[in-house]
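Q: Predict the bound structure with hypoxanthine.
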Amino acid sequence: MKEALQKTTEYLIEKGFMQPEIGIVLGTGLGKLVNHVDIEVEVSYNHIPYFPTATVEFHQGKLIFGTLGGKKVIVMQGRFHLYEGYTLQDVTYPIRIMNELGVKKILISNAAGAINKEFKKGDLMLIDDHINLQGGSPLAFKGVSQFGERFVDMHAPYNPRINSLIKEIALREKINLHEGVYASVLGPQLETRAEYRYLKIIGADAVGMSTVPEVIVANHLHIPVAAISVLTDECDPDHLQPIDVQDIIATAESAEPKLVRLFSEVIKLV
Ligand code: HPA
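A: Predicted complex:
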């Protein structure tokens, strides 16, 4: 992996990805933040050497470099999911690349289902902690110690300082921002009623199919990270309606301006 990382990094530096300060990962239906970025370079994932696209069907994602809130940013428009057949190493490879390029902070967004009954469709949730239900770790590989320690501390995986800045901005901007625990599942099928009940009992406030591997690797690399879920459906096991993925994407898109405001403002301050 060392050699691949080096080759990918060289390619991106040659393309002009020079000293990004903040890395941003945008979730499903949440790509419009890039409209606010003063873009200098953009490259399709399938053109980037060693990027995890070759083995699976064409992936439409793009890696973008530019300025947002006065900072140099590198933005992943579209992420890799385990449910697409990628491995945990593939899914987190872009985080390792951000690290190689010198990123100092990482911000992540995702679409998630609301488990907490107080939380409504279209609301935002700042992730305070997580439960990994994806059945694996992106750090469980031979030679992990070449990249950092194996037994990574997770007492505060989401950076408390960035999280308090985000909460202050939400108050100021009058954005209703919940805070809670995100459970990551493999997917791609949605949960059964029994699974939603279980998730509630174990302490999850929201459920989704991403983010946790990226956050584990950011912690491995000692990069402060924060993440926000856009709640796209209400997972009430006693009144569960069939979930329509198009509806999930539409809800993410309509809540997106709030997320764009939070991310654009916090970038100025971190
Ligand atoms: N479950 C899992 N992932 C999701 C959901 C959900 O209900 N909504 C959006 N992503």
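A: The chain has a mean pLDDT of 94.
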